[in-house]
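Suppose a colleague, Dr. K., hands you the sequence of a protein chain of 505 amino acids and asks what its three-dimensional shape might be. Before reaching for any lab equipment, you can write down a predicted structure in token form. Begin with the sequence itself:
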Amino acid sequence: MLSPHTEHMNRATTTPVFKISSLLAIAFLIWGGLAPQHLAEVTGAIQKSLLQTLGWFYLLSASAFLTVAISLIFSRYGSIPLGPDGCKPEFPLLTWFAMLFCAGMGIGLVFWGVAEPNSHFHDPPMGLPGSPAAAEMALRYSFFHWGLHPWGIYTMVALVLAYFQFRKGVPGLISLSCKPILGKYADGAMGSCIDIIAVFATVFGVATSLGFGAVQISGGLSYLFGVPNTLTTQLILIGVVTILYMLSAQTGLQRGIKYLSNMNMVLACTLLLFLLLLGPTQFIMEVFTSGLGSYIQNLPTMSLNLAPFSDSSWIHEWTLFYWAWWIAWAPFVGTFIARISKGRTVREFVLGVLFVPTLFCIFWFSVFGGTTISLEMFEHVAIKEAIDQNGIEVALFTVLEQFPMGTVMSMIAMFLIATFFITSADSATFVLGTLTTHGNPNPPNHIKLTWGIIQSVSAAVLLWSGGLKALQTGSIIAAFPFAFIIVLMILSLLKSFKQEVLPTQ
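The predicted structure, expressed as tokens, is then:
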């Protein structure tokens, strides 16, 4: 006999959240497949309007979320465990770091570690391109875009979900974490809308990244081995990655994602140490030290700068786009991080999720971005010309080829990209399964399989039709309301914290 709770979860595939989010996914697939140019025009116009009129809201929201996260470290609520009193963490500390990092932005670092600093160096927000000031600014803004603010967003979403799921015994749904503020409305249509937004953002955010990842691996194979960088190659790569991540998804958290995440961290650190030791080591460490100081010093100004008295197009194209993109990914990353964080205290959780990945990201950009700028400024290697000629996806391989064993390291980099994508897609199928089975912490395999197929078909169809960029924009637009949802979640958390019985200080 199944318990009523289990039966309820098994029936969850017929809930409004599953039905509506599935129909939305199919509708956007049809739109993107049949009329990609029209989809691009519509979503592009909406996104441009949002960023122009509400850019201030994105900046204030991201900074507010970060401020709340940091304040919780020093608050009297820091000792509250994410679970019953006395419970122990489910995963060892290093495995926990690896899993949250790989789900959060691992693949993005491999793609943008060289490309973003190089872009800012040649097109800085102000000043002369290619100058020492542009080099300093290129690294500082790379730190900014991948540092405290995105991890502050992830921290707050994940903390709220983990607290209500493990401390209060509430199913792991974003809608139900807003219940202290929304009351009965969290169980009705409003709650369903919240979860549908989360599902939509997750499906197409990951599908878009899967498509872009196939393009980068295909570009690497073409650059190194002359494999044709064609749509056929990219579709074959999506098919292979899909099979691998679906096999991983069937094994659950304790095996598939756990082992892959640990392997990813080993490969990433191997690549990092290779470039650190064989590259301009002293320059890299000076860049890291000076850049970290410049980042901390300029953090308040960068956090709230919209350049209203000058051309603000750079900030719209980079900072505001990133803030919107991180918010779009927050339902997925937050739900996953929450699931793997049972037993941590609030203080331990915030310190771990906020500062450890931020420092790693800053060091990553110091190594890869610092090496890139050193090659261009002092050794006159034409990295920008290679990117202009072959595409941004070859940036990393161009840099690695400048060093001994560069081809071997490029092969490791391509393998790392693939495993990062397997991990992200695997994590996403788990999160989507949870969101569409009434918060089931261990969703059935057939539900994960369904969402895995939808993700891969979305990536393939939109890669074929040229609609990937449009769908990325669509995902960000759909997630715009999620910024307001995060506000509701934080207010719900603080309201529940006040009802906690804390030990006498």
